[in-house]
Amino acid sequence: MDAITALHTRNSANLLSEPGPNSEQMEAIFQAGLRACDHGCLTPWKYLVIEGEARAEFGQLMASVKAAMDGGQIDPELAAKLAQKPFRAPTIIAVVATVRAHHKIPDIEQVLSAGASAQMMMTAAHALGLGAIWRSGSLMFAAEMREGLGLEPTDQIVGFLYLGTANNVKPLPERKTSDFVETWNGLAS
Predict the structure, then answer these.
(1) Number of domains in the chain
(2) Coil, strand, or helix at residue 129?
(3) How far apart are CA 115 and CA 95, in angstroms?
(4) What pLDDT is recorded for position 189?
(5) How confident is residue 188, by pLDDT bands cut at 50, 70 and 90?
(6) CA 115 to CA 45: how far, in whole Å?
């Protein structure tokens, strides 16, 4: 698939199954992520791959983080539901902004760069014929999640990319560029 077709047809697939990406596909996905816009060449990102049995531990981490966020208690039904979420795909990539103090490049630019890296990986997965969805939520902002994943306190999770074989193909939403593009003609007088 050529680049423009991949960019114009990428869509999230929320029903994913085996097989997940193979090692060659994973390398191609990571290589795409490394080409993201990056002010100052800081490469402010890293990727954690969660596959196989590690998904069970990730599910338990999700449940324990939610419990911590709610004062230490969690409904057993919710805990069981959270524990199963990582099994919605064979492969998960946690995309992390490795934010560090810089005299010229603010934190937000580093987080945006990590987000751009995630988007590049999503488009690469689509170009390779994989299904993918970018998942987020309040759990990814919790200190307990960062700690559980072995991250630094200054790291920020920008999303969890779920990858696998798409079981459904959703229609692309109709969008017209004219609804989003305006021309700025300078300062108003």
Answers:
(1) 1
(2) coil
(3) 8
(4) 65
(5) confident
(6) 9
